[in-house]
Amino acid sequence: MDTFPWEITLTVLGVVIPTVAGVYEFFFIGRRRLGYRIQMDTRAFGGEFAGARHPSLVLVRIENNGSVPVDVDDYMETDPVGLSVRFPRRRVVRAFDPARRGPSSPTNAIPELNRDPERAEPDVLRLPRVPLNRNEHYKVLVLLDELDGDAAPDRDGDASDAVMESRIKGGRVIRTRYRSGVSRGVVALITVMASLIVALYYVSGEDSAAAVDCAAGKLTVVGSTAFRPVVEKAAESYLRACAGAPGEVEIEVRAAGSQEGVRALDEAGRRAGEAGPAMLAFSDGPKGEGHPQLLPRPVSFSLLTLVVSEDAGVQDLTPAQIRRVYAGRYRNWKDVGGNDLPIALVGRYSSSGSRRALEERLLDGATEPNVTSQDCRRRVARPDNPTLRCERGSTAEVLDTVAAVPGALGYAEAHAAAAEADRLHLVRIGGQPAELDAADRGVYPFWATEYAYTYGQPAADSLTAGFLRYITQEVGQDVIREYGQRPCADLANPRLCRPS
Questions:
Q1: Quick check: 389 and 472 in contact, CB under 8 A?
Q2: 114 or 427, greater pLDDT
Q3: Is 188 among the domain residues?
Q4: What distance, in Å, lies between the first and last C-alpha atoms of the chain?
Q5: Which domain holds residue 342?
Q6: Could you tell me if 77 and 163 lie in one domain?
Q7: What is the rounded distance in angstroms from the CA atom of residue 23 to the CA atom of residue 196?
Q8: Do 431 and 339 share a structural domain?
């Protein structure tokens, strides 16, 4: 007989836990329930006030924290009023509605109920029958006088001696504390069932490879150098999860630039024919024209940043200043308020997706200047290009060069750049730092959508399809977040990840 798959067990328990907790809360904890909180209990005024020689103020909150509304008929018929709150050793002087909601306020009647100083129970506050829908509440501010003749110390709200002495039909009135969440019984129930889930996970470890959707074979991943750390970490995790699966699994990561990866995938697909290549390409941005067989899948929202050497003397540039620097109109950092130091542009090869994002999002579609230097220090004279600019093949090489060359300006994936912040500066753009939320809201302009490309539609049971599903689902998304990027599913504005 086949064993019951642990994934199905987890799914069933995932439905059972909230269902059982809800039923327990609904039927056993109470459908109709009023709660009261003492939100303040303190000495007041420092002397006699409104007939109280030793006045104190108490703020009482009445709330419907049950699962059904409470109507006027739900209060006990034996109680001439709705609710009664007793304040031992104190006399109720007056009660107020702190919200001052007007003539319809339920607390307008409270002073009339407590005005007679000779009544039998001067320490009791009587509240009218107030209908309350689920989660509704009202508050009452009570002026009290100490009966023992001495001013009592301040009391914490939870430590107040005030107590409710009323009931409601088919339910109860309870004192609530300053805490959130479900009751202790429900917490205990969830804890026990969660422990069962953990136990099932460990005793069913032999089935974990199947849950990851493993497939045997060799996969080659090409493309973006900025996204390479994410791919490598995801590949390591995938291989560990598939260690017990039948057949050998191998993933090789070769990152040489987004457009280079797109071209490599296209060429491999044309050679492979109908079977298609066991290859994925990741690109910082769209594939461009001329690759009709490549299918895009948005994977993540990648944040990019400008970086400068420490001695440049700038940490913020406006979009207009950035365009003028790359157009060659500003060639010294003093032109933008920095130090008297020549600007050395450190760019990427034309195959770089990060370069395409720079040109599209910061340069209004203009291209970077031509190369005029190999070492990024000495400029080769070119009459058509007055700037000093060199190129590097990867994110890491750009960061190393910017950190080493005086006056250098480059660009890189933001998480990788932040790791080098001890030797270079991340540049704010128009006063806005490189932050994912700011880019998501449209106030930070330098970002790119990370796409995964396949040559046609890979077979569902192939290693290509399996790894692609892995990196775009839960575990892979955690890796993406770990490296400072954001899965497309997390975006408040999902159109940013829409294929172009």
A1: no
A2: 427
A3: no
A4: 51
A5: 302-448
A6: yes
A7: 20
A8: yes
Q: Which of 442, 446, 462 shows the shortest CA–CA distance to 454?
A: 462
Same domain, 162 and 288: no
pLDDT grade, residue 111 (50/70/90)?
very low
From 302, 255, 304, select the one nearest 418 (Cα to Cα): 304
Predicted confidence band of residue 142 (pLDDT cuts 50, 70, 90): confident
Query: Confidence band (pLDDT; 50, 70, 90) for 152?
Result: low
CATH code (residue 313): 3.40.190.10
Whether residues 222 and 307 share a domain: the answer is: no
3-state SS class at 202: helix
What string of DSSP letters covers 16-84? HHHHHHHHIIIIII-SEEEEEEEEEEEE-TTS-BTTBSSEEEEEEEEEE-SSS-B-GGGB-TTSSSSEE
Output b/e per residue, 306-331; b: 16+ Cβ within 10 A: bbbbeebbbeebeeebbbbbbebebb
- In 3D space, the residue among 265, 304, 235, 303 whose CA is nearest the CA of residue 452 turns out to be 265
Query: Looking at the predicted structure, is the pLDDT value of residue 408 above 60?
Result: yes
Kindly state whether residue 204 falls inside one of the protein's structural domains: no
Mean pLDDT over each residue of the chain, to the nearest integer: 81
Place of tokens 């509240």: 127
Residue 70: the pLDDT is: 86
Output the CA angle 407-413-414, nearest 5 degrees: 80
Tokens of 199: 């136990």
pLDDT for position 201 = 46
Residue 194 in this model has a pLDDT that exceeds 90:
no
Of 158, 188, 192, give the one whose Cα is nearest residue 175.
158
CATH of the domain at 38: 2.60.40
Residues 155 and 215 in one domain: no
Six-digit token string for 432: 């806005």
HSE-CB of 74 using CA atoms within 13 angstroms: 19
Dihedral sign, CA of 360, 361, 365, 370?
negative
Tokens of 497: 């990840």
Q: What percent of the chain shows pLDDT beyond 70?
A: 78
The radius of gyration of the chain's CA atoms, rounded to the nearest angstrom, is 34
pLDDT given at position 276? 79
Which candidate, 271, 292, 316, places its Cα nearest to that of 429?
A: 316
Amino acid at 91: R
- How many domains, in total, are found in the chain? 3
